[in-house]
Design brief:
alpha+beta; 5 helices; 28% strand; single chain; 6-stranded antiparallel β-sheet
Length: 197
């Protein structure tokens, strides 16, 4: 088992050493999917020691040739040359620069702390800025004008939406999350300890 994990770690290190920025998962052409390395959906695939759960170890005991499929780490250039690969909707690799953004529509009154740092957009995906904060405006203002709306402050300005209105956001990790995940990966594979911190 230790030898197999060491081989998998060496394979991942080699990919990082070549400057890989993306990972391709699945073995068949129809199911291949492209991810950014910091994608949350492949985090467990990049931790060889934890991938080998008890059921996998039993299967290996029964068949010494058994291996868990590993993601293939690729550079940006190699990713651009791939064909027949779907893009992950969690991390939106967008190597071509032409793929539609993954969008999510939420009720304005359901905005929460988890949306800070995400991009507010028009329904067609056109960005309106990164969400900085929001507040409910309910009741009459100093001039007697009634309000029942959500005021969303973005990096590009202020957008006001009815409380029961819908807003569109890019359904992607915040830049801060993505940078933190990428930094952890680089540190893990550069430090010699490929296990998550």
């Amino acid at each position: 088992m230790a030898r197999i994990v060491a081989q998998e770690v060496a394979s991942l290190r080699e990919g990082f050493g070549r400057g890989a920025e993306f990972a391709v998962t699945r073995s068949t052409a129809r199911e291949r999917m492209l991810h950014r390395l910091e994608c949350a959906s492949i985090a467990s695939h990049l931790d060889p020691s934890s991938r080998w759960t008890t059921p996998h170890r039993r299967r290996l005991d029964a068949d010494p040739s058994y291996r868990i499929p590993m993601p293939v780490l690729v550079t940006r250039q190699a990713a651009r040359e791939l064909t027949g690969v779907r893009s992950c909707r969690v991390c939106w690799p967008n190597v071509s620069g032409e793929e539609p953004r993954p969008l999510r529509h939420v009720s304005a009154q359901r905005l929460g702390p988890q949306h800070v740092g995400r991009v507010l957009a028009r329904p067609d995906g056109e960005p309106l800025g990164t969400i900085v904060r929001w507040r409910a405006r309910i009741g009459a203002d100093l001039f007697g004008v009634e309000h029942d709306e959500i005021e969303i402050t973005t990096s590009a300005g202020v957008v006001t939406v009815a409380r029961d209105g819908r807003v569109t956001i890019w359904d992607l990790p915040t830049d801060e999350e993505a940078i933190r995940r990428k930094t952890e990966l680089v540190h893990r594979f550069a430090s010699g300890d490929p296990r998550p911190a």
